[in-house]
Design the sequence.
């Protein structure tokens, strides 16, 4: 099952690649997601425009492999219609 993770901030684009700390954090946030889940940092949640039917669970502190600072992450849910 697909896992999705996200973080926001400046990246470096070289050719078709995106590089930088933000990309590394996003990859590690993805590692915290189970199959079929989407997890984002609270930074991304706070900067995202409201989208109908999208809900964020309460943030939880996460230690991300290879990243020194802790991040708060939220699971993303789709509100049933």
Sequence:
């Amino acid at each position: 099952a697909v896992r999705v993770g996200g973080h926001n901030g400046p990246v470096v684009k070289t050719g078709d690649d995106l590089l930088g700390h933000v990309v590394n954090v996003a990859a590690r946030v993805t590692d915290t997601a189970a199959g079929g889940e989407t997890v984002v940092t609270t930074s991304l949640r706070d900067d995202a425009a409201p989208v109908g039917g999208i809900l964020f669970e309460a943030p939880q502190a996460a230690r991300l492999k290879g990243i020194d600072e802790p991040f708060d992450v939220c699971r993303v849910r789709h509100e049933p219609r």
About this structure: The beta strands are 4-6, 12-14, 17-19, 38-41, 54-56, 60-62, 71-78. The longest strand covers residues 71-78.
